[in-house]
Amino acid sequence: MTDIFRESFMLTALLAGLITGLVCAYLGVFIVLKRIVFMGIALAEVAALGVALGLFIGMNPFTSSSILTLIGVIVFWAAHAERNISRESFIGFVYVFCASLAVLLIAKNPIAEAKGINLISGNLLYTTWQDVAVLGVAAFLIMLVHLAFFKKFLFVSFDKETAFTSGIKSNMLDLLLYMTIGIIISLATKVCGVIFVFASFLIPAMIGLVLAKRIRTIFIVACLSACFCVIAGLTSSYIWDLPTSPAIVILYSVLFLFIAGIKFILIK
Amino acid sequence: MIKMVEFKNAILGYGRKEVFNRLSLDIYENDFLGVVGPNGSGKTTFLKAIMGLIKPRGGEVTRIGGIKFGYCMQRQFIDTLFPFTVFDIVMMARSSTKGAFKRLGREDREKVSESLDIAGISHLTKSAFRDLSGGQKQRVLIARALSLEPNFLILDEPTTDLDVKGEREILELITSLHRNKRLTVVLVSHELNEVINCSDKFLFLNSKLPHQIVMKDDLNEHMLSEIFGVKMEFKKVNGRYIIT
After folding, report:
1. Helix (H) or strand (E) holding A26
2. Buried b vs exposed e over A79-102: b needs ≥16 C-beta within 10 Å?
3. Which chain A positions have a beta carbon within 8 Å of B53's beta carbon?
4. Which residues of A touch B104 (CB under 8 A)?
C-alpha cells in the first residue's frame, strides 16, 4: 500500500485528504453538538461559489472563497430568526442560491473545466503542493486557536449564557469558533469538493458519538475514523479507479453504518 | 447595606416586545428576591437584565464592581446531546477563570469537588448528566454556579417539574446557601408557594398589570388577590406560609 503513496499526485492527495479530514472531523464534533449541521453544508456551498467566482473573474480562488465564506460565517453567526422566516429557511436559501450560481459560473468558464475543477465531488488527485501548504498552514493555525480555547469553546457551545455570566466573552468566542470552521471550509472546498468537506464534518463526528461516551474520546474517535477512511478511500480509489472524494465518503458511511449496526445489535 | 444591582426606570424587552416599562428596583447584598409571575410575564428577561445579557432600552441598570454571578439556567433548555459527565459540567465553569493555553489544575479540581459536596452530589461525579433525575440535574447546575465562588446566585425556575420532595430539597439547599454563605439570591418561579417561604422580597409580574415590588412583611390576601386576579388565601401553618 505504501507504494501507492510514493507517486507524487497520490502523496499530495493523501496529505490534503488527511489535513482536511482531520480538521473537519475535529470541528465536526462541535458542528454536530451545536446542531448547526445545515450551516456547515451551506457554508461549503458559499465556499464553492467563492471558488467559482474567483475563477470567473480571474482572482485567486482561495482568496475569493475565503472572503465569501467569512462573510457567510458572520451572516450565519449574527442571523436571528425573523417572525415569518426561520433561520433554517434562510440557511436553505443560501445553500440553493450559492450551489446554483456556482454551477452556472463553472459551466460558463472554460478555465475551470481545463483545471479539472469539480466543486461538488472535488478532485483530490489534482492537489498541488501549494494546496497542501495552504491547507497545512490553515490547519496549524486552527489547531493553535483550539489548543488555546478548547475548554471555553465547549462551554460556549454547551451553554452560551452561563458562559457569559461566568466572565467569558461568549459572542466573540462563538464567532472565533465559526471563523475556524469557515476557514477550513473555504480552503478545503476547492481541493476536496463540497461532498467530502461536508461528509468529513458530519460522519466522523457521528461515529464518535455512537462509539464513545466521553467528550474527549469522541474527538479522538472522530479524527481517527477520518484518517482511516481517507487512507483506505484513496487506496481503493487508486486500485479500482474510483473518484476519490466519493470513495472516501462512502467509506465514512459504511464505517458509520457498521458501527451503529453492531451497537444496535449489542444493545438488543 | 451594599446595593448590588440597581434598576432605575429601566425599560426592558426583546424583539419587538416591551416587557418592562420603567422598572425601579434595588437588590442589596444578602437579599433573597423571589420573582413570581406566569409564563411569558418577563421573568427571564428580568434575570438577563440583571446579568447584563440584555441592555435596557431606556433608563439604567447598574451593577456594583466585583459582583460575581452564579447562574443556574432552566435545566429544560440544556442540550442533552452533549455527553458530559457531572464533573465535566461543573469543571466547565472553571475554564472561565483561565487564560488562553492555561490548563485546569489541582486547585480547580478541589473547587469542583467542594461544590459537588455542598450540592450533595459527590457520589454522582462520574455519572452522565443526561441520565440524571430533574432534581439531580438542578443540583449539578447549582454546583457549577458555586464552583466560581459567586456572591450573587441567580436561579431560573429551579423547581419546575420536580416532585414535592425534590422541590423542597432544592429550596432548602438554596436557602442554606443564602444563609450560610451569605449569597444574594434571585429566584424565579411561576409558583408563589415555592418562593414564599424562602424569599424576603418579591417582584410580582403579570403581563396585564404593572409589576409590583413587595416586602414579605407587607404581603396580605387582598394584595395577592389583586395581583393574581383571583381570590387568594394566605395562612401561616407551623411557621410556614401557605397560599391557596
Report:
1. helix A8-33
2. eeeeeeeeeeebbeebbeebbeeb
3. 161, 164-165
4. 151
Sequence-ordered list of residues with C-beta below 8 angstroms from that of B113, at least 6 positions apart, any chain: B122, B125
| B53-68 confidence digits (pLDDT tens) | 889 999 999 999 889 9
pLDDT band at A221 (very low <50, low <70, confident <90, very high): very high
Give domain limits for chain A. Answer: 4-261
Cβ within 8 Å of residue A83, ≥6 positions away: none
Q: What fold is seen in the domain A4-261?
A: ABC transporter involved in vitamin B12 uptake, BtuC (1.10.3470)
How is chain B split into domains, by residue range? 3-67+151-243, 83-150
Q: What is the ipTM of this complex?
A: 0.87
Q: In terms of Cα–Cα distance, which of B54, B35, B69, B37 is closest to B184?
A: B69
Q: Which of A80, A30, A2 is nearest to A184 (CA)?
A: A30
Q: Which CATH architecture has domain B3-67+151-243?
A: 3-Layer(aba) Sandwich (3.40)
Task: Enter the C-alpha cell of residue A16.
Answer: 490534503
CA distance A47 to A261: 34
| A12-70 confidence digits (pLDDT tens) | 999 999 999 999 999 999 999 999 999 999 999 999 899 889 988 989 888 999 999 99
For residue B147 the three cell numbers come to 464552583
Over the stretch B111-124, which tens digit does the pLDDT of each residue have? 999 999 999 999 99
Say what the pTM is.
Answer: 0.89
**Residues of chain A in Cβ contact (below 8 Å) with chain B:** 32-33, 35, 147-149, 151-152, 154-155, 157-159, 161-168, 209, 212-215, 218
What is the band of B225 on the pLDDT scale with cuts at 50, 70, 90?
A: confident
